[in-house]
Specification:
The complex is a heterodimer. Chain A is of the alpha+beta class. Chain A is built from 15 helices and eight strands. Chain B is globular, with a radius of gyration of 20 Å. Classes of the chains: A alpha+beta, B alpha/beta.
Chain lengths: 377, 180
């Protein structure tokens, strides 16, 4: 006998064929994000992303600290790409404080930023590899990443969260012997990146799992406002290092890559192509960098911003990273807003997963180059 | 002894503005002479403001006639002294090469409630989701962080905060971090 409902209470009609599956939140399985997936048999009928498990209120905290003391905590959203996360904040702060950056510091910033991009991308690639059951692709990038981290440690004094970029330049100059060590590591790393193709990107199993899954058309990529490798894998060649060059990117010889397929394979290949270009950028920056000079403009202890807005953006490992600072003339910013690639790319998860097989979910989800903590901030 | 003062050069603010950005802003102000105000024009950055009741038609014009095709970011700003909350939409373009380095921001203000109850008070604004699809998650973030209700948004739900959050919206100025 069916149980009677109390008067006034109704139950929604349930489709018996549809099952709701909570994927996550767990680390690193879904990376502190829950995907609420509805499946019909083996196929995903809808997916609702639910981020927010590591929310630390970075933007709120930034209202309580001055322009300088904001630096160590504003890099936290992506610790593996901390130089790039701080980059737009420093550019916007320099605009509001009216500071010029010395020429040598601009080159040092570019080198640090590209090294950090490689550190982030190797980490992401390792996770992508292990999620597709390719344990060698987990171990190789993880090991190679250590060499780059050692190099950044020499440069900044810290292994992961460097707090190296400051308004007005960088915290300290290159240590003795850094240029030679950097060139040696970059030469080795470039060889290794090419080897990744042999074991991973040319692997028929990987291709069969990622090709033609989670296709995002060029039109949809634009309409949804996606950014970074997601956008460039769908055929839109938009990289801020070329479109809106900051610091000395205009002087550097490099290319940007876009692919047309818009599937998981293309999305995973764009960051790999970027790493090859990063090696080229680092070499060119080391060659063109002024051999001496200051790397930092001195600031007052508690600088006050001019009243106004500043919105600056850079190309991070995950796409465009914008920083909007509003100043009311005090020593603390009135409001700091970070517009991050992972948050912007979140919007396409329901589109890409709808109609896909559940087994393809890791291949599609991780191909977004998504960093959960960055989306939360 | 009186020293002769150096002759002052007359420079108008308009003459120092970058031409391309000024022309783009002028197209909007020409179409909406009484509804859109230019806040500032700098190289690669245009800041405009409009009234909340005009935001949709201005946004449609910016999309269809100027070629800005997506929103990069939506910033919510609390102004408790003025009793207002400000929204700043940062718009960019992937399709028009001449606008690739440009960011056009359009801001608007809505009344601010002391005790917000999103949906039932006057802190409401029309959603731009139908104009710029990409604002969907940005508006959801502003909804929970500042207590603004976006009319016409298909999914006004919490995104980043816990489901049982019962305090003030955390990005309002009167929400204080505990211990400070």
């Amino acid at each position: 006998m069916s149980k009677q409902l109390p008067s006034g209470m109704t139950l929604d009609k349930v489709d018996d064929n549809i099952m709701t599956l909570n994927v996550g939140p767990q680390h690193p399985g879904s990376g502190h994000m829950r995907l609420i997936v509805k499946i019909d048999g083996d196929y995903i009928t809808s997916c609702d992303p639910d981020p927010g498990y590591v929310h630390r209120g970075e933007e709120k905290m930034a209202e309580y600290r001055n322009y300088i003391t904001n630096i160590p905590h504003l890099e936290r959203p992506v610790i593996h790409d901390s130089c790039n996360v701080l980059y737009p904040y420093c550019l916007a702060t320099e605009e509001l404080l009216g500071i010029e950056v010395p020429e040598r510091a601009k080159y040092v910033r570019v080198i640090a930023s590209e090294l950090n991009r490689c550190v982030y991308t190797t980490y992401w690639l390792a996770i992508y590899g292990i999620f597709l059951g390719h344990s060698t692709m987990f171990m190789w990038p993880t090991g190679d990443r250590e060499l780059l981290i050692d190099l950044l440690e020499k440069l900044t004094g810290a292994r992961v969260t460097h707090a190296y970029f400051v308004p007005g330049g960088v915290r300290n100059d290159l240590p003795p012997g850094f240029e030679d060590a950097c060139l040696r590591q970059v030469d080795y790393f470039e060889k290794r990146i090419k080897e990744y193709a042999a074991i991973f990107y040319d692997n028929p199993i990987l291709i069969s799992r990622t090709e033609k899954t989670g296709i995002l058309s060029r039109q949809d990529a634009i309409r949804l406002g996606t950014t970074g490798s997601v956008l460039r894998a769908s055929g839109v060649d938009y990289d801020l290092r070329k479109k809106e060059p900051y610091d000395v990117y205009e002087e550097i010889d490099f290319e940007t890559h876009s692919l047309k397929a818009g599937d998981s394979y293309a999305r995973s290949k764009v960051p790999w192509l970027d790493m090859l270009e990063s090696c080229r950028i680092i070499r060119d920056a080391l060659a063109k960098m002024p051999k001496s000079g200051s790397v930092r403009t001195k600031l007052k202890p508690n600088p006050k911003g001019i009243v106004g807005h500043s919105y600056r953006r850079v190309e991070s490992g995950r796409g465009s990273l914008g920083c909007h600072i509003v100043s009311d003339g005090k020593v603390e910013p009135y409001r700091v807003k970070l517009s991050v690639g992972s948050f912007r790319n979140l919007i396409c998860i329901p589109y890409l997963l709808k109609g896909e097989k559940l087994g393809n979910m890791p291949a599609v989800y991780w191909s977004l180059n998504y960093w959960p903590v960055e989306a939360d901030r | 002894m009186s020293e002769q003062m150096p002759e002052k050069k007359e420079t108008s603010i308009e003459s120092t503005m970058p031409k391309f950005e000024k022309d783009v802003a002028d197209l909007v102000t020409k179409k909406f002479p009484s509804n859109v105000e230019i806040l500032s024009i700098q190289p690669k950055r245009i800041q405009l403001s409009t009234k909340s009741e005009n935001i949709i038609e201005v946004a449609q014009f910016i999309r269809d006639e100027l070629g800005f095709d997506h929103a990069e970011s939506v910033t919510g700003l609390d102004h408790p002294d003025e009793g207002q909350i400000e929204l700043v939409y940062h718009l960019g373009s992937y399709t028009d090469e001449s606008l690739a380095s440009q960011v056009l921001s359009i801001s608007t203000r809505v009344p601010r409630e002391e005790i917000p109850n999103p949906g039932n008070d006057s802190t409401k604004i029309a959603s731009l989701r139908e104009v710029f699809y990409s604002v969907e998650f940005h508006e959801r973030e502003c909804f929970e962080m500042l207590g603004i209700y976006f009319e016409g948004h298909p999914d006004n739900r919490r995104l980043l905060l816990p489901e049982d959050w019962a305090d003030l919206p955390p990005l309002r100025r009167d929400f204080k971090i505990k211990g400070r």
